[in-house]
Amino acid sequence: MGKAANFTQHRIWHIFLDVLAFICGSALYAAGVVIFINPNQISSGGVTGIALIIHSLAPIPIGLTVLVLNIPLFIIGYIKLGWRFIGRTAVCTVLMSVTLDVFGSLLPAYTGNRILAALFGGVFMGAGLALVLLRGATTGGTDIAAKLVNGKWPHLSMGRVILIVDTIILLTAALVYWDIETALYSAVAIFASSRIIDSLLYGADKGKLIFIVTEKPGEVADGIFQQARRGVTAIRAEGAYTKAQRTMLLCAVRQNEVAAVRRASIAADRSAFIVVTEAGEVVGEGFKRPDA
Questions:
Q1: pLDDT value of residue 244
Q2: For residue 185, what is the enclosing H or E element?
Q3: Burial degree of 91 (CB within 10 A; 0-12, 13-18, 19+)
Q4: Residue-wise burial string across 63-84, b where 16 or more C-beta atoms lie within 10 A, e elsewhere
């Protein structure tokens, strides 16, 4: 009974976090579009970018257009990908469509410097999308289309498909607004959005991966633990040319801990061979929790 109750509480807590993230993410994204992007004739790319182009040609609500454009993608996605993938995405898309139209009548528009509008619009949109992605959902549109295309033609990556679609939308927006700067500012907004998404999704969990080939693995590992408080994994290694037996230590650290690990390694073994490389994401003790 206790396990069932704990499972129920855990499930309720996760649902609450999902709903909170979806609402806050939708609000941030909608604020970026309504305050900065739309008033300055900047495209956001994706389905929202198409909706903005349609809105500039006819007084149709942006959120309603986003929802209508996503319906056929939802149907195809459900058939091809299943309900598990589409369910959360549908909820997020509906929330985002509603907030776009509600905020459109409530929030003021910024019509000053267009480069500032592109940057802040991208930041708001990126932060909103990151909150949604952190909870395992997407906002539909080109994400679904890219996954469907990738499923049929695996040699076309999702990133490449989205880039192609966004490029077409930006060029279309430039033609509709008859302003090449629209495409340029739109590219700035999309770039800012992507950087914010990467920073929020992986920035806090980015780190460095350090490989240390040494003849004194015990001393090096002890020094690393004392100076950086990081664990080390020992791997047997052999020189391909000399056939000499060595130990390679593997250590994942945060970026500000690299100097301490390097210092400790050299202090323990002056002849240690050290390689430092990027770690896009580190999951486990001392970093991101596995269930986050």
A1: 82
A2: helix 180-202
A3: middle
A4: bebbbebbeebbeebeeeeeee
| Residue 156, φ and ψ in degrees, nearest 5 | -95, 110
CB 74 within 8 A of CB 90: yes
Phi and psi based region of residue 151 (left: phi greater than 0; alpha: psi -120 to 50; beta: remaining):
alpha
Which strands sit side by side in the sheet containing 245-253, from one edge to the other?
Answer: 233-238, 245-253, 207-214, 273-279
List CB contacts of 265: < 8 A, sequence separation 6 or more: 210, 212, 214, 220, 223, 224, 272, 274
Q: Which whole number is the average pLDDT over 180-199?
A: 86
pTM of the model: 0.71
Express each pLDDT in 246-286 by its tens digit: 889 999 888 778 888 998 999 999 989 999 988 767 776 66
At 159, which amino acid appears? Answer: G
Cα dihedral sign, 97-99-100-104: positive
What is the mean predicted confidence (pLDDT) over 51-62?
A: 88
User: Tokens 């920073």 — which residue?
Assistant: 199
